[in-house]
Design a protein that fits this description.
Growth Hormone, Chain: A, about 0% strand, about 80% helix, mainly alpha, 18 helices
Length: about 450
Amino acid sequence: MTLAPPSTPSKQDSLASHYALGVLLLAYILSFIDRNIMALLVGPIREDFNISDFQFSLLHGLAFTLFYIVLGLPIGWLADRISRKLIISSGIFFWSLMTSLCGLANNFHSLFLARIGVGVGEASLSPATYSLLSDLYSEKNLRWATAIFAMGITIGSGTSYMIGGWLYDTLSAMDLSSYPLIGDMAVWQITFVGIGLPGLVVVVLMLFVSEPPHRESTELTRTESATPDAIPLQDVIKYLKKHWRAFFSLMGSVSMMAIIGYGTLTWFPEFLVRTYGISKTEAGTALGAIFIIAGTLGTFAGAFFCGVLQKRGYTDANLRLIMIAALILIIPATAAPLMPTSTLALAVSAFVIFIHYMHFGVAMAGLQLITPNRMRAQTSALMLFLTNFFGLALGGTIVAALTDFVFNDDSSLRYSLSVISLVFYPIAAALVVFGLQAYRKIIVTRTAE
């Protein structure tokens, strides 16, 4: 078979790479602000639309993920073939527009459709970004780049809590009836409009990102393709089937972690309000600070401890770290919502959030390391499909279903949050054990080539 001529790689780990990473991080932060702002608006939306927790969870989770998870796969396919910069820029513009349009919704169905639009736009970001980062950074620094990008989860979620709670309470205290355009809008609607607009600035910043060419992996040029073109879908499927145990373990364990992560993101602010009677501003400020500080430090700590494990000879460090985090968290995460005071609940949650967010950045880096270059956007899209299906679509809904249909009491939200930690952290750890050897085998094989 004729070998493909190697593509010319861009200068990696350069100032241009760092600028691109900074803009992509900002986009990721905004994406989490836009998708998660509803967590601070549970009460007023439920009241205006006369809906239950379960129905609200459909707006927050199912509506957003309905096309978000489905479009991730074809977008990943496109990202292996066309400009990733164009895909990301278009997506940012669209989801920002749709977030603002959420503020014009006047019933359950119109808000459901607007949330679908937010999900459609945000589907463009992650698959294209992870493919882009694998070309912008060397394998040595890739785990740090993906960890920095993953900071968008905690910074964005924390910022949504802080801004959302403060903005809602501030607007509620004002008389807006005489203002044009917004005078007849509910406070939660105005909040959506204001949150969506900053995305347009990020679109402009994306114009100055330099996109590198796709780099070919050694294994790919030897066995998969004779041209620098993207790998056909059937070859991606063939590769995944060949190494199914490793991919199932990695994607499955991260998906279980996502159920807890997104379930907590959606309902923890409302749990604080219902259980301890604190205001949205207090809940948002406290949780926001915890996510931004503890969550972000945890993301970096994950990359650091992954490096420590690798230096000690653990070639499976990226996957092994997920197991370690899951096992550590079973007891404190189960106990956090059961604390007698909000202060204790937040203190234990700070530790939980620190450990929980150690895993995602290194997990995504680990996925890139076991995947040929021209398959990376597609496999990243598959992983994001699964984590978002289980996390975004099911995480918050499982919590709401437990509250509405098992405990049958709004005040029992704390028990629902405890149950998901007690059930899904052990499953995540078990899935890692299932695939460690297979994952390690791929790493060793690809390193030897």
